[in-house]
UniProtKB/TrEMBL annotation:
SUPFAM superfamilies found in the cross-reference section: alpha/beta-Hydrolases
Family: Belongs to the AB hydrolase superfamily. Lipase family.
One function term, GO molecular function aspect: triacylglycerol lipase activity
Cross-referenced PANTHER family: LIPASE 5 (PTHR34853:SF1), PTHR34853
Protein name, per record: Serine aminopeptidase S33 domain-containing protein
Length: 418
């Protein structure tokens, strides 16, 4: 049996093999240009018009662009961020240009060297971005601030505000605005689709739209979303809590990490401890800390007013984000704002990532309806069970449960005949 160090090394080596262009922190594209600090949010800082795709694993007949733009962090301070555009061969068109989907990526990882724009498969491949492009949508995918672009123009580190949904929503909105400025052929119309923490970004975008409405926003889809982190069960609660510390510390300079960490434990090891059966690093009752409570109130989804249509999709057997927490967030929103254009779909016997595939027909049709300007009722449709909408062809036990494959490059000419 391999040692813990060997397992960690193997995991790191596997992650490195997924990078398209080596370390993002060393790549010139992710270096912030002079004058970036003076740019307003939504401004374009640089564009790599035709990204070399030979190192990526993209579908045939797609093109890739990477760009850098100005976003804002949780406290509305300017921060540069990067994003990609995945171009379909034959784009869908609106009256004013090509239809845009803002894709807010998921996954728990928050390393500076793993932005989707430097991932060989753009991180979530056929789970969503490739499928969207195949349907003719131009896909704008933000990396989120602190991933890829890791330093300000001044040289100061950029804090990645992991799981801070309003911060990620800023990245989504300003990425779309920057893409529209860089490429006038893009329509002003766009829909936000997100999964996991990206689902949280989609939900937070709907909340953001109340006070900071953006022209062209047609609605959002939040799949397996992060909602209220403090409502998650253990051990997930402590794992997510550990990931909040950098953003929490940046927001509240008087916060002391030692108030929530066990003595002698180090930041960054909660994920490893959990995966290897360890006990974690957080103190008992850490979530009751005053700063944690204030920060959570800032970043939580649910119980807040939303603008525009929002479709929430949740797998009942999700072990990353509890379906109970999502249901609670939907219910608190419904009770406070019963006229919300909110639809909630629960997927029986479906977990975190498979929720994307299990509901794909549903959200593809929902997105098409938004671009077609079809009306959504102004009242919360509390809970729909997918099996009532789409009778399953086979019993639940017959279906493949989890993703157990990854894309790999063709290394010989006969692997990919032309």
């Amino acid at each position: 049996m391999s040692s813990v160090n060997e397992q960690v090394l193997q995991a790191i080596q596997y992650e490195v093999s997924s990078w398209a262009n080596g370390r993002a922190t060393d790549h010139p594209f992710y270096q912030v240009p002079d004058g970036a600090s003076k740019a307003t949010p939504g401004s374009v800082l640089k564009v790599e018009m035709d990204t070399e795709t030979s190192a990526y694993l993209l579908p045939p007949a797609t093109a890739l662009t990477r760009f850098m733009y100005q976003s804002e962090n949780l406290t509305n301070k300017p921060v540069p961020a990067s994003a990609f555009i995945l171009w379909p061969y034959s784009p869908k068109s609106q009256a004013d240009g090509f239809a845009v989907i803002a894709w807010a990526h998921g996954e728990l990882e928050s390393t500076k060297n793993k932005p989707p724009s430097n991932h060989k498969t753009l991180s979530q491949h056929f789970l969503a971005p490739f499928q969207l492009a195949a349907q003719g949508y131009v896909v704008v995918g933000p990396d989120y601030a602190g991933l890829g672009v890791h330093k300000h123009e001044s040289g100061l580190d950029i804090v990645h505000e992991h799981m801070a949904s309003p911060s990620h929503a800023n990245d989504v909105i300003y990425a779309v605005q920057a893409a529209q400025k860089a490429f006038p052929m893009l329509s002003q119309d766009f829909v936000v689709l997100g999964h996991g923490r990206g689902g949280g970004a989609a939900w937070a975008t709907a909340q953001r739209q109340v006070d900071k409405p953006i022209p062209g926003y047609l609605g959002g889809v939040a799949i397996s979303p992060v909602t209220t982190i403090l409502d998650q069960p253990e051990p997930l609660l402590s794992i997510l809590g550990e990931s909040l510390i950098p953003g929490l510390s940046a927001t509240f300079p008087d916060f002391k990490p030692g108030d929530v960490f066990l003595e002698g434990r180090r930041l960054g090891f909660a994920h490893v401890d959990h995966l290897l059966g360890g006990a974690g690093i957080m103190k008992p009752n850490w979530s009751e800390n005053e700063h944690v409570q204030r920060y959570h109130a800032m970043i939580a989804n649910g119980g807040k007013k939303i603008a525009g249509p929002l479709l929430v999709v949740q797998g009942v057997t999700d072990v990353r984000f509890s379906s109970n927490a999502t249901t609670k967030a939907v219910n608190t929103t419904a009770e406070a704002f019963p006229k919300s254009q909110l639809e909630y779909v629960l997927l029986p016997n479906v977990s975190h990532v498979p929720a994307i595939q299990a509901s794909q027909r549903l959200w593809m049709e929902w997105i098409a309806d938004r671009f077609a300007r079809r009306e959504v009722p102004h009242n919360v449709q509390r809970t729909k069970i997918l099996q009532l909408l789409i009778p399953r062809a086979r019993p639940s036990a017959s279906y493949h449960r989890e993703l157990n494959w990854h894309l790999a490059p063709a290394t010989k000419h006969y692997h990919a005949p032309s």
